[in-house]
TrEMBL record:
Annotated GO MF terms: ATP binding; protein kinase activity
Stored Gene3D superfamilies: Transferase(Phosphotransferase) domain 1
GO biological process, one term: signal transduction
Full protein name: Predicted protein
The organism of origin for this protein: Laccaria bicolor (strain S238N-H82 / ATCC MYA-4686) (Bicoloured deceiver)
Domain (Protein kinase) ranges: 32-244
SUPFAM superfamilies in the cross-refs: Protein kinase-like (PK-like) (SSF56112)
UniProt cross-references to PROSITE patterns, sorted A to Z: PROTEIN_KINASE_DOM (PS50011), PROTEIN_KINASE_TYR (PS00109)
InterPro entries according to UniProt: Kinase-like_dom_sf (IPR011009), Prot_kinase_dom (IPR000719), Ser-Thr/Tyr_kinase_cat_dom (IPR001245), Ser_Thr_protein_kinase (IPR050167), Tyr_kinase_AS (IPR008266)
GO (cellular component) term, any one: cytoplasm
Length: 244
């Protein structure tokens, strides 16, 4: 799968499918801005051990399992987040530069889109829309945000099964490493929390800094190695590539 570049398809384009995109970013990170929206017509099922999204990447599912018949758990309007790298669109000021940036973005993030595990957040695809400054990546919007936000609430912090959360993160990492992929930037902000069938479930996210190991010529230059874990490495590398 992710261990072979030829086995990782391009991501699904969700242009004109995401509606109600927020006018302004709802969160600003170190190198990206987060917008929210709704994927109308998208189908995803949340069940214990299963989080699926039909045809997220070239007709494949993004998570373990298959699309079930429509029922109370199947959504046709999915709340999503759209991640847009800050100021990259300003650097890509020509059609050629924008095309190069989009290719770099696809090459790196399709690794994330190919991962399928209960404790890995699905990546639905990429989008270009007038409401956002440049191409963004689309993923589910989790109810409780990241790990830091989840534990900032005293009630949740005292009642949560912390050992189960740690085990979930470990299972996700074991799966990812088994696919010869290194996350490269695992922080509290990159572990999201969703309650699925009453169980607090950690979901590892943001594999844009990942690199696929042992595949010569596949890892793109926007990926960081384990040693290069600075917050601005991805943005800097993107800018450098756009100038070439």
């Amino acid at each position: 799968m992710a261990a072979n570049g030829t086995d990782v398809p391009n991501m699904k384009r969700l242009d004109e499918q995401i509606k109600e995109i927020s006018e302004f970013p709802t969160f600003c990170g170190g190198y990206a801005d987060i917008f929210t929206g709704v994927w109308r017509g998208g189908r995803a099922s949340l069940a214990r051990g299963v989080w699926t999204a039909g045809e997220a990447i070239s007709g494949r599912n993004v998570a373990v399992g298959t699309i079930p018949p429509p029922d109370s758990r199947t959504q046709t309007c999915i709340k999503v987040t759209i991640k847009v790298f800050r100021d990259v669109h300003n650097k890509a000021d020509t059609p050629e530069a924008r095309q190069k940036y989009e290719k770099l973005l696809n090459n790196e993030y399709r690794v994330w889109a190919s991962l399928c595990h209960t404790n890995v957040l699905p990546l639905f695809g990429v989008i270009k829309d007038p409401a956002i400054p440049s191409m963004g990546i689309v993923a589910p919007r989790c109810t409780f945000g990241d790990l830091r936000a989840f534990f900032s609430d005293p009630t949740r912090a005292s009642s949560a099964n912390r050992l189960a959360i740690v085990k979930g993160i470990a299972k996700g990492l074991k799966y990812v490493h088994g696919k010869t992929v290194v996350h490269g930037d695992l922080t509290m902000g990159n572990v999201l929390i969703e309650v699925i069938e009453g169980i607090v479930t950690p979901l590892i996210s943001d594999f844009g800094r990942s690199r696929v190991l042992e595949v010569k010529g596949y890892t793109s230059s926007i990926a960081s190695t384990v040693q290069r874990s600075g917050r601005f490495v991805l943005e800097r590398d993107l800018h450098a590539n756009l100038k070439k």
